[in-house]
Amino acid sequence: MTKATNITWHASTVSKADRRVQNGHGSAVLWFTGLSGSGKSTIANAVSSELYRQGINEYVLDGDNIRHGLNKDLGFSDHDRTENIRRIGEVAKLFVDSGAIVTTAFISPFRTDRDQVREIFEEGEFIEVFVDCPIEECERRDPKQLYAKARRGEIKDFTGIDSPYEAPEHPEVTVRSDLLTVEQAVEQIFEYLKDKNII
Ligand SMILES: Nc1ncnc2c1ncn2[C@@H]1O[C@H](COP(=O)(O)OP(=O)(O)OP(=O)(O)O)[C@@H](O)[C@H]1O
Ligand SMILES: [Mg+2]
């Protein structure tokens, strides 16, 4: 629902299609989802680096950075998690409109939240990348020591422990980060992008 009245959509003179032609590649969002420690940030950044190396417009939207700025008014209640994802979806859409391949690295644990983001994109622009990794392995990695804190009761509503993670049912790409190296995961995602003629 839009609160403001007396607002009109102003179409831009340069279109998304124009930008794609000028860039010589498509634009899309690679929406990474998975447990904390599954490897979303690691793989998203590795994908972005390789895109950059190949001269492709890219950008990473990552969890903590967004919570420092755009979403600093939001916490981790169900309502705030939903609003967090909604806003990131809208920002990602702007990047896709600008002609970039944007990667997002948020746990985004709720299926309906991710599906609502999918809805605002055109067909083929929203690429859900499920970073699939058993929680035991995520907890063993525990790069931010968050599982340790959650187990001690110092973090409430931690995904996978006392807040649910709803795995995607039909992700465009599933990356088994416990079985593949980061390089192999990047390769798998590049195969998808090439197969869909995005790059
Ligand atoms: N194949 C792999 N793919 C990705 N990460 C891996 C892999 N093997 C080991 N790792 C390690 O696992 C950790 C993943 O941490 P990362 O911060 O990327 O997770 P995350 O999903 O972004 O978590 P969070 O939701 O807390 O931000 C890193 O320390 C990384 O080096
Ligand atoms: Mg991360």
List keywords for this structure.
single chain; 199 residues; alpha/beta; Rossmann fold; 5 strands; binds adenosine-5'-triphosphate
How would you describe what is shown here?
The protein has a single domain, classed as Rossmann fold, CATH 3.40.50.300. The mean pLDDT is 95. The longest helix is centred in the middle third of the chain and has 20 residues, at 78-97. Strands 2-3-1-4-5 form a five-stranded parallel sheet, with helices on both faces. It is globular and about 55 Å long. It has 199 residues and is an alpha/beta fold. It contains eight helices and five strands, in the order H-E-H-E-H-H-E-H-E-H-H-E-H. Bound molecules: adenosine-5'-triphosphate and magnesium ion (MG).
- The chain-level structural class is alpha/beta
Count of spatially separate domains: 1
Strand content bin: 5-15%
Measured as a percent range, the helix fraction is 40-55%
Instruction: Show unreliable segments.
Output: none
Regarding CATH, which class? Alpha Beta
CATH topology: Rossmann fold
Question: Strands, helices and their partners?
Answer:
Blueprint: H1 16-23, E1 28-33, H2 40-53, E2 58-62, H3 63-68, H4 78-97, E3 101-105, H5 111-119, E4 126-132, H6 135-141, H7 146-151, E5 173-176, H8 182-195
Parallel strand pairs: 1-3, 1-4, 2-3, 4-5
The chain binds adenosine-5'-triphosphate (ATP) and magnesium ion.
Short description:
With 199 residues, the protein is an alpha/beta fold. The chain has helices spanning 16-23, 40-53, 63-68, 78-97, 111-119, 135-141, 146-151, 182-195, and strands spanning 28-33, 58-62, 101-105, 126-132, 173-176.
